[in-house]
Amino acid sequence: MRYDLTSMEIFVAVAETGNLTRAAELQHLAVSAISKRITELEELAGASLLLRHARGVSLTPAGQSMLHYARQMLQLMERMRGELSEYAGGLKGVIRLHASTSALVEFLPPELHAFLKRYPMIRLQIEERTGAAIVRAVADGTADIGILGNHTPLRGLAALPYHSDRLALGVPKTHALARRKTIQFSEALAFDFVGPHAESSLWTLMMQAAQSSGKQIEPSIQVSSFECMCLLVEAGLGIALLPERVLAPHAESGHLAVVRLKDAWAERQIVIVVRDMDNMPFTTRALIEHLREPIASA
Fold first, then answer.
1. I need a surface site. Which of 206, 230, 247, 268 has the fewest CB within 10 A?
2. Do residues 193 and 185 lie in contact, with contact meaning Cβ atoms separated by under 8 Å?
3. How far apart are CA 117 and CA 124, in angstroms?
4. 5-85 — its CATH code?
5. In sequence order, which ranges of the chain are alpha helices (DSSP H)?
6. May I ask the CATH class of domain 163-268?
7. Does the predicted TM-score (pTM) go above 0.85?
8. Is the CB of residue 171 less than 8 Å from the CB of residue 256?
9. Do 93-158+272-296 and 5-85 fall under one CATH topology?
């Protein structure tokens, strides 16, 4: 005789109702059949699982332990059924993805395109958000997945490494820094900045770097678009801290110069965040696994 799912379901019903008769009604069985199953479980466990009272039953310590594992087994089976059912006719569903500008500009487009080719019946709802807004959306369930720089406080969200990028300074071609190959960020604080949005993970990083050097940063201009930041730099309105991949096309066209940072934090980690790594829909898990395939195969 072995533990079986039917007995587990019956035991959970008895434990939750505290009454054999009520459990029998819920399970559409005779009370004698319920009692027989409980007796068999007690024989398997080698311990009493229930205390019988005039008005019903309660759990012994062994019964409480049994209830804990029985619920886990049933939940696992339900998850398995749900995930396998997703394969009927092809995986389908809606995934709400909120991502930072960096992730959307540098990495996501080709990877999401490949994912949708693999799972054409999945629909993605994609929103570009600042780091702090992404964290809030994932925490309150507005978004299923968030992708942002890890310098934004994640407030207890589960995080997985995604990509890394490198930050550099974009400066006007005629700027005093244009002839420099490298620089410490603290040196650049002497100049006017075109800054990103105040809630972005990039701005958070800039503020932290300035504070650690005992200085302040007060950009004369703050905008949300990386492209707009580059155009403002080209117009001579300041310098900007941006990913090298974003600056590269503008540098290649000769409209601005790129100065690399010596600071270790300029190498930045982009992360995937979710509320609960263990209880995700299969569609969400499939997207995360797809996005992290290059990391897993490295």
1. 268
2. no
3. 12
4. 1.10.10.10
5. 5-17, 20-27, 31-45, 61-85, 101-106, 108-118, 131-139, 185-188, 201-212, 226-234, 244-252, 282-291, 293-296
6. alpha beta
7. no
8. yes
9. no
